[in-house]
Amino acid sequence: MKRILGVVLAAIMVMSLVACGGNSDSGSNGSINTPTIGDNSSQSAASADDQITIPGDSVKKTKYIFNFQKAKSYDKITGDNKYLVDEPDAGNEYVVCFFEVTNVSSEDDFVNPLYLDAYVDDTSVNTATILNKVDGYERLSGDLAAGKKAKGIFAFQVPKGWKKLEFTYKDGYAKDADKYNFEVTPDTLSN
């Protein structure tokens, strides 16, 4: 009986290795939508990835609609508890971006703030951790069921006198993952 079980397990392992194996044929890229002469689909995909969304605009791709409601700057953020105050480092301010996100896919998903890449005046920055709610919004993060919406913020610490904040939400780490590009300048901030 042990011998039969061992043979069955070995067969399953071999089949799984064959199924997971890649195609080493350099002539095939494995793509189903191979462009033909006169087909601009690869150019359209590249330009769709380069689309920039500013406050007041929305962008829709495979999984999400990101409605970029507004962006505001704060010298400090005070919540319901007057003793808990979020303050940026000296010489900095917060730029807080307000979103409503809709999951337009047929599957539940997770909005992950770790998928953000951000730059202020071409210098990399991280998202800021804000402990207070900002205008009733918390950090945009968590499970999002198919067809449902979530509201939240992405916050950044930027040096005073900044010119441009640009950030990208890339839906996962796969090479073909959707990219949502956003841009904020001082003249696009709400009061």
Description:
With 191 residues, the protein is an alpha+beta fold. 15% of the residues lie in helices and 36% in strands. The chain has a 5-stranded mixed sheet with strand order 1-13-12-8-9, with no helix packed on it. A 4-stranded antiparallel sheet has the order 2-3-6-11, with no helix packed on it. It has a two-stranded antiparallel ribbon with strand order 4-5.
SSE layout and pairing:
Blueprint: H1 2-20, H2 41-50, E1 52-53, E2 58-60, E3 64-74, E4 77-78, E5 85-86, E6 92-103, E7 109-111, E8 116-120, E9 123-125, E10 142-144, E11 149-159, E12 165-170, E13 179-184
Parallel strand pairs: 1-13
Antiparallel strand pairs: 2-3, 3-6, 4-5, 6-11, 7-10, 8-9, 8-12, 12-13
- One letter per element, helices H and strands E, the order comes to HHEEEEEEEEEEEEE
Shape: globular
> What share of residues is helical?
10-25%
Low-confidence stretches: 16-46
Instruction: Count structural domains.
Output: 1
Number of strands: 13
Number of helices: 2
> If classified by CATH, what would the architecture be?
Sandwich
Average pLDDT reading: 82
First-residue to last-residue Cα separation: 75 Å
CATH T-level fold name: Immunoglobulin-like
* Most strands sheet: 5 strands, mixed
Q: Compute the CA-based radius of gyration.
A: 22 Å
Q: Tell me the β content.
A: 35-45%
